[in-house]
UniProtKB/TrEMBL annotation:
Highest taxon listed in the record's lineage: Bacteria
Lineage, highest ranks first: Bacteria, Pseudomonadati, Pseudomonadota, Betaproteobacteria, Burkholderiales
Record InterPro entries: ATPase_AAA-3, CbbQ/NirQ/NorQ/GpvN, ChlI/MoxR_AAA_lid, P-loop_NTPase, Sigma_54_int
Sequence similarity: Belongs to the MoxR family.
GO biological process, one term: regulation of DNA-templated transcription
Protein name: MoxR family ATPase
Keywords assigned by UniProt, alphabetized: ATP-binding, Nucleotide-binding
Stored CDD domains: AAA
Protein source organism: Hydrogenophaga aromaticivorans
């Protein structure tokens, strides 16, 4: 990522964020994570109670980048064809035609993913991984860029199907969305009950694809990659990293997808912050979001009232980030 187009890039990203913030109040951290996922071409799992502007954020973002937005409400009676599409028989011509499903969009919101049965979940996860669907033996590619944001409701557990570990692992990050502050809520009410805000389209999907390509060029120091490897390794074999007491609380640690997610995420966050090299804090900011859903707690851990965030905090206290290497500046120069 050369310095001459860094200002244009930073300016374009600022404009995108500015437009989204004209509609969405607060939720800065959540919005930043959505942008990181978008730049790093990863998918997002979002957990939060209803009414926290999860749908609104993605819908507004799609308008701003002139992308196609589709929303699927997951229900227990959903079948894979409702998602990916199906073959339709035309009686007049005697031919079959393919009707593509709602997954053919740039930004796809899978609402309450844990309400659908496993068959539907696996159909969505195939699209996320392969970026294509197969209908009657024919492959159809989804548009690019393609981002899936799935939400799950933490309150109601009745009538929900927990996502299997292998499926959850496909999501780059799991973000927890919290209630707004009193000040933010006041602004929300004023904005919703006032005149409607029309967002401007400030970018195109082609420009977004160019930003994603630039993101891949952000420099990540080998010491930082090593830090990501050590963090993920500490979730699998805590005793090797001086965390003997923690080992009994973890059944399974994170997969190599977590390490890749940390490096790609650090790149995207550095780019959002206007740099063409990643710093240790870019990575450590994302560690809880990238690891949270990938650690499976043991019965002992659950019985002691621990959650994955508490264990991640312990790991981060022990596995320290590298000192800010000066190599970046030399490379950038």
């Amino acid at each position: 990522m050369s310095d001459n187009n860094a200002p244009d890039t930073a300016q374009l990203m600022e404009q995108i964020l500015y437009e989204v913030k004209r509609v969405v109040v607060g939720q800065d951290r959540f919005l930043e994570r959505v942008m990181v996922a978008m730049l790093a071409q990863g998918h997002l799992l979002v957990e939060g109670v209803p009414g926290l502007a999860k749908t609104l954020t993605v819908k507004t973002l799609a308008s701003v980048v002139q992308g196609q937005f589709k929303r699927i409400q997951f229900t227990p009676d959903l079948v894979p064809a409702d998602l990916v599409g199906t073959r339709i028989y035309n009686q007049k011509t005697g031919d079959f035609s393919t009707a593509l499903g709602p997954v053919f969009a740039n930004l796809l919101l899978a609402d309450e993913i844990n309400r659908a049965p496993a068959k539907v979940q696996s159909a969505l996860l195939e699209v996320m991984q392969e970026r294509q669907v197969t209908i009657a033996g024919e492959s159809h590619k989804v548009p690019s860029p393609f981002l899936v944001m799935a939400t799950q409701n933490p309150i109601e557990t009745e009538g929900t199907y927990p996502l299997p570990e292998a499926q959850v692992d496909r999501f780059m990050m799991k973000v927890l969305v919290d209630y707004p502050t009193d000040e933010e809520e006041f602004v929300i009410v004023e904005r919703v009950t006032g005149p409607a805000v029309q967002v401007q389209a400030v970018a195109t999907t082609e420009q977004l694809a160019a930003l994603q390509a630039l993101c891949r060029q952000v420099y990540v120091d080998p010491a930082l990659v090593q830090y990501a490897v050590r963090l993920v390794s500490a979730t699998r074999t805590p005793e090797k990293h001086g965390l003997k007491d923690t080992a009994r609380f973890i059944t399974y640690g994170a997969s190599p997808r977590a390490t890749i997610g940390l490096v790609e995420g650090a790149r995207a966050l550095a780019m959002l912050r206007g740099r063409n090299y990643a710093l240790p804090e870019d990575m450590s900011d994302l560690v809880p979001d990238v690891l949270r859903h990938r650690i499976v707690l043991s019965y002992e851990g659950l019985s002691e009232g621990l959650d994955s965030d508490a264990l991640i905090a312990r790991i981060m206290d022990t596995v320290t980030p590298p000192a800010k290497p000066l190599e970046h500046e030399k490379k950038a120069a």
